[in-house]
Amino acid sequence: MIEQRAQRIGRAFGAAAPHYDAHAGIQRVVAATLAQLLRLQPVKPAPNGGRLRILEIGCGTGLLTRHLRGLFPDAEIVATDISAEMIAQAERGGDLAARFLVMDGEAPAFDGAHFDLIASSLTFQWFANLPSALDRLTALLRPGGSLMFATMAERSFHEWRAAHDVYGLQAGTPRYPDADSLRAMLARHADAFLFEEEYAHDFGGSRGLLAHLKGIGATVPVEGREPLVAGQMRKVMRAFDKAGGVCTYHVAYCRVTRLAEHRA
């Protein structure tokens, strides 16, 4: 991520860490779905009978980490997050048996083909340059290793953006890539696939949606967007509530695999 923006994102998630789990219902569902995909998609065994090495990007409080530990009880897991407070919250769980590391997943602190699996749930949408990040992370995979991740896609929060459009205003939520754009990014790598899910959730209207976003730390707006004044925000909230007060998470589940080396 761009350094200054990355710091802002880290601070926002750090502030949310103590109460993140109470607001992360959809995040919990996405992590469980990603874990189910990992259960169905075979992970190449570690070479020479060694321990499976797993890197998690954006572990947060450990929602996906717990699934990874259950799926791969003997694996060496390195769970990372941009927020030191999130890492501390995950460590307090006490049952994850992982090595925790503060790290920006877009600038990984590793070199060379080291991991058999890299996994991430709802983190990659924060990256400034997703294609470049995919290149860097795929380079960390051993031959035959896989990168599996869930990220936000085009229709996420479209109801909230529509409420802004009524008044010609810009929403703070990013314009996420559509499925075709994501597929094009993945197609540059081997054995790629993507499928989509939409989760339309009633947050109890605009106040509930804003409380959810603050509760999970998703409060850093798209770059260059000026904050709304109070009167503008009240209008947007009324338009959102009038339209039904339901908001959608559009999630793309993606996998790429690094080609195995072949000997002549």
Automatic annotation (TrEMBL):
GO terms for molecular function: carboxyl-O-methyltransferase activity; malonyl-CoA methyltransferase activity. CDD domains: AdoMet_MTases. Belongs to the methyltransferase superfamily. The keyword Cell inner membrane does not apply. It comes from Sphingobium fluviale. Coiled coil: none annotated. It comes from the Bacteria. Pathway: Cofactor biosynthesis; biotin biosynthesis. It catalyses: malonyl-[ACP] + S-adenosyl-L-methionine = malonyl-[ACP] methyl ester + S-adenosyl-L-homocysteine. Transmembrane segments: none annotated. GO terms for biological process: biotin biosynthetic process; methylation. This is Malonyl-[acyl-carrier protein] O-methyltransferase. Converts the free carboxyl group of a malonyl-thioester to its methyl ester by transfer of a methyl group from S-adenosyl-L-methionine (SAM). It allows to synthesize pimeloyl-ACP via the fatty acid synthetic pathway. The keyword Amino-acid biosynthesis does not apply. Pfam families: Methyltransf_23 (PF13489). Its EC number is 2.1.1.197. Keywords: Biotin biosynthesis, Methyltransferase, S-adenosyl-L-methionine, Transferase.
